Amino acid sequence: MLALPPPPPPLLASRQTKQLSLDQIVISKQPIRQNSQESSSPNHVTTTKSIIRPQPILRQPPFQRTNPIIWFGAVLCLMFSLSLIFFGVATLIIFLAIKPRNPSFDITNANLNAVYFDSPEYFNGDFTLLANISNPNRKIDVRFESLDVELFFSDRIISVQSIQPFTQRRRETRLESLHFISSLVFLPNDLGVNLNKQVQGNRVNYNIRGTFKVRVSMGLFHLSYWLHSRCQIEMTAPPTGVLVARKCITKR
């Protein structure tokens, strides 16, 4: 009687049943349904694996150098801004320290010597005035480069005089005599009638307009600007016409 070999150990049999072949491994993203026959087989093992794709890595853009033209423009803007601030502060300091004021124009005295008509529309007149031009500044000298004074009746110009340029020291006053002669000046009929009525009523109203170009020197700084004076005067009738009232305003 032949003897049968002993059965394999149970541990070795279990290891053999657990050995898997590569073709028995199913790789997919989702679980795969198993066949009923395969699932019933004790030696069939199904393994499901999921492959996770790696997320893309965010990369920083490469470093780029700033264009030199942009740096140059930025430097110019900075210098321009600083210069504006500097000159603004300097102007404010000078203004507060000096306190500049505009020169003034006034009429001290006036005489209306003659008013007559060669015809109803052509006027002749003789008028003199004494102008007072003053510089009220205590620390600034001014120079009058252009001075024109115009004589008006109503809104009609009847004579013009000019004054030679001159320099005026601080707190200085200058008296200037101006002689206005009107010869055959055309006046509309209504203005001629109005002037005759004023002469007969012993009250003649004239308007005087002065235009002056002033130059101011403050160390290294020089400033030129225009001044405009407006005066309304009231005279008695000629030949002894004297100044009765006046009102003058000077502004830029």
Secondary structure blueprint with pairings:
Elements: H1 10-18, E1 25-27, H2 36-40, E2 47-49, H3 68-98, E3 104-119, E4 122-134, E5 141-153, E6 156-163, E7 166-168, E8 173-186, H4 189-200, E9 204-218, E10 221-235, E11 241-251
Parallel strand pairs: 1-2
Antiparallel strand pairs: 3-4, 3-11, 4-8, 5-6, 5-7, 5-9, 9-10, 10-11
* Beta fraction: over 45%
Regions with pLDDT < 50 over 5+ consecutive residues?
Answer: 11-32, 34-42
Q: What is the CATH architecture descriptor of the largest domain?
A: Sandwich
State the share of residues found in helices, binned by percent: 10-25%
CATH topology call of the largest domain: Immunoglobulin-like
**CATH uppermost class of the largest domain:** Mainly Beta
Shape: elongated
Task: Give the radius of gyration.
Answer: 54 Å
Mean pLDDT: 80
Q: What series of H and E elements makes up the topology?
A: HEHEHEEEEEEHEEE
